[in-house]
Amino acid sequence: MPRPSNTLADGVVVLSPLDWGDVEPHLAGEDAELVRWLSGGRGTRATVRAHVRRAIERWHDDGPKLSFGIRVDGGAVLAGTIDAELDRAERRAGLSYGIYPAYRRRGLATRAVRLAARYLGERGDVHRISIDVDPQNVPSIGVARRAGFRFLRHVTDDEGDFDRYELRVRAPVVPAPPPPPRHGRP
What we know:
Elements: E1 8-9, E2 14-17, H1 23-29, H2 32-39, H3 45-61, E3 65-72, E4 77-87, E5 92-99, H4 108-123, E6 128-133, H5 138-146, E7 150-157, E8 160-168
Parallel strand pairs: 5-6
Antiparallel strand pairs: 1-2, 2-3, 3-4, 4-5, 6-8, 7-8
Helix pairs in contact: 1-3
């Protein structure tokens, strides 16, 4: 099955796969809020390089985790990251995202989630997309809601308590072929 382009844009945000040039901007952008809600620990040059290496390999292998850089200024500046974790057996994907402090409160996370959802929908192998959010992470709940996700349920598991938001993906629209010419005219 052909895959959609892995670079997406909406006129403000550009999503493209993480690459080696993202190591230093990521280290510079990481703060206590990203550590608290997303990574659970400060990155080092070695751990971020390892993450980027795995991200490049996973794009080559088509998953199961696909890591995008969230970029602004025509794709020149890394403003955050968004990951799509594919679960092919369940035909679903989970999204996680983080925006660096200098770029927060501009709607970039919502735009990035919408672009990632579009990418996942165009793949054709994902029917549901979920975002798991700590109930205390009010900004992330707002992102999920503004991007069209609906609260599904509260979950308690070995990773803790979180609220699951879900978006059902519609099948990509395939244009109908043009009608046959009538009476020999094109």
